[in-house]
Structures are given as C-alpha cells and as structure tokens.
Amino acid sequence: MNRRYPPVSLIGAPTDIGAGDRGALLGPDALRIAGLGAALAARGVDVADRGNLTGPRNPWQPPIDGYRHLPEVVAWNRAVMEAVGAELREGRLPILLGGDHCLGIGSITAVARHCRDTGKRLRVLWLDAHADFNTHDVTPSGNIHGMPVACLCGIGPDALTHLGGDAPALSPAQVRQVGIRSVDEGEKRLVKEHGLDVYDMRYIDEVGMKRTMEEALAGVDADTHLHVSFDVDFLDPSIAPGVGTTVPGGPNYREAQLVMEMIADSGRLGSLDIVELNPTLDTRNRTALLAVDLVESLFGKSTLMRD
C-alpha cells in the first residue's frame, strides 16, 4: 500500500524517572543506533530528529506520599507535552522515544489538547503487557510508569492529571488496550469500575489478533486522530528481552506485525510513543532492532502491495 505520511519528528526523552529499573534512559539512542530514522526515510518519510529533551536526573529515592519522583516526573512530562504539542501544531507526526511509560502522560495530554483545538476525535491504542491503571493506593512500589492511563483519565496527583490545564485529558472510552497480561489486584477493580476497554491475551488467544484489532480500530475514521502508545514489553520477552518488566505470554512476531500493519491500513496514525526499551537488559540491541522493524510496518511496510 503506497500511502503518504506527514513529516515525522523524533523526540528523545532519555529518562527512567518513573520506572523500577535503571536503563530506559538509554532507549532513545538505542533506537537511533538501530536505524529508526534511516528506516523511515527509506520509506519516503520526511524525518527530522529533534534530539533529546533535558530534565532532572533520577534521584532513585523511595516513594513520598505514595509516589516515586513525582516532581521529576512532572518536569519530564511537561517537557514532553510542550515538545509533542509544538510538532503537532506544525502538522508533523511526533514519535516520542522513551524513556519509561510515565512519559505517555505528557505525550497524550498534548495530543488530546491538539484534538480539542482541531475538532478531531481521539483514539488511543495502548500496546502493553500492563494496564498502567494503578494509583498510589493500590501499588506498593509508587513507580509512576504503572499509572499513566489512570492519570490521563483523571485519577492521580493533580500535577499530572491537570498537566495540560484540563482534567481529565482522556475518558476511558477513548482508550483501547491490547496485549494486557499483568494487572494488579487493586488495579483490576479500578479497570472494571471505569469500564476500560481491555483486549487481554486470553481474549486474543480466543478470537485471534485480526478480530481483536478490527474491534480496537472500530469507528476510527477520517475525523479520528489515532495515537499509538507502544510499550516494548507488549511483545513476548522471547523476542524482546530488552525491557525492565517482562511478562511471558505476549504477542509473537507475526501477531505484532499484524497489529502494526492493520494500524497502517487504517491510515489514521497521527502520533506514536515507543517506550520502556532498556538496552542494559538487551542482547546486541536485538529489541531495538525489532522495534524499528515493527515501526516500519506501522508506516506501511508489507510483504505485498495491498489495496
């Protein structure tokens, strides 16, 4: 399928401020070393690499009032929100290179504001092993990379739920989660209470990835901005070991390719996060290379010409 994409901007956010393991701060440069920019350019995409954002270092402290590193998380997410928003206003497609998944708060807050300003409907595809719908009440770790969906839906500290001046940035009805296979006990109650649309691995096993993605993309049309938040731990750790929170039983290579190809077929991709890549846990940058391969499919690479 020969489709023209808007110009793309790569935005690095080298921090593991919200994670439980060090190393995700190296993710942006690992993706660059794996050839992300060149791969997209080879597909005819206009790519500009904006370099890396700067922010506070990781103090590696225990939780305070249930949250680890909250001031630093807010600072990083504000920087991400401003950078992503600036690219959207220029008509470009921002690709956030994380960094841990707490950065999705800033990225998606910017996208939600852009959609309100332009009259677009927003659909978020959350590709992840985890629901990330925790609060400080139900998680003992206080790691904010387990809370971004809750924060975006208005559940969490004011500094994050009101990051863009509006709360909530999202309603649960705008989110589709695919590949989920690890949800904490207290988190399960919150997911059910708020009606989050979750396609967990049992559902995928029962109906197949094709039907799952058809349902997740149902209603996406020309008036829809599709944001994909791709946590690399979405993938089975047998093919993607370079993450801090591996969970067995994830999508295999072909299933992941189908996910990306069906998103590409929708023609509605407007913004992308690639997060939680941890090169310190990887082997010869294998996981970054796989992520680049999948992003190529997200931008239209397929075995045959399809129409």
TrEMBL record:
GO terms for cellular component: cytoplasm. Pfam families: Arginase (PF00491). Its EC number is 3.5.3.1. Keywords: Arginine metabolism, Hydrolase, Manganese, Metal-binding. SUPFAM superfamilies: Arginase/deacetylase (SSF52768). It comes from the Bacteria. Its cofactor is Mn(2+). Binds 2 manganese ions per subunit. GO terms for molecular function: arginase activity; manganese ion binding. Gene3D superfamilies: Ureohydrolase domain. It catalyses: L-arginine + H2O = urea + L-ornithine. The keyword Transmembrane helix does not apply. Pathway: Nitrogen metabolism; urea cycle; L-ornithine and urea from L-arginine: step 1/1. One of its GO terms (biological process) is urea cycle. It is an enzyme of class 3 (hydrolase). InterPro entries: Arginase, Ureohydrolase, Ureohydrolase_dom_sf, Ureohydrolase_Mn_BS. Mn(2+) binds at residues 101, 128, 130, 132, 231, 233. PANTHER family: ARGINASE. Belongs to the arginase family. This is Arginase. It comes from Cognatiluteimonas weifangensis.
